[in-house]
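Tutorial handout. Part one gives the primary structure; part two gives the three-dimensional structure as tokens.
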Amino acid sequence: STKNVIEFCSRDIKLEFISTLSVFVSSCYNDIQTFSENQLTVSNRRLNSGYALTKWQSEYLINIFKQNGGNASIYRLGLLTESLNSSYLQNRSFLYLLLKELDKLQELPKI
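Part two.
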């Protein structure tokens, strides 16, 4: 689908892509403490989820599009959580389940 969007945007339309910080959550970045936004590794073999892999592949294609003169921006979002103003909680999210278990323990792990 990213290829189709790139093809569509090649008609002087700016591509605005929402990605994830998961593209950098990989053992190939263990030795790097600071890296630039454009420092996406050439290898994606160490990504540990299909979600991160598909985002990585899309970013890779978009970066080629940009190198060839395409107009695009990539936004990498961190952890998105539920609204504090809403009564709706996603009770299957990792963050929710973690906080629920910590509440049961009545203790926080020492870091």
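Part three, for discussion. The helical segments are 2-9, 50-67, 94-105. The radius of gyration is 18 Å.
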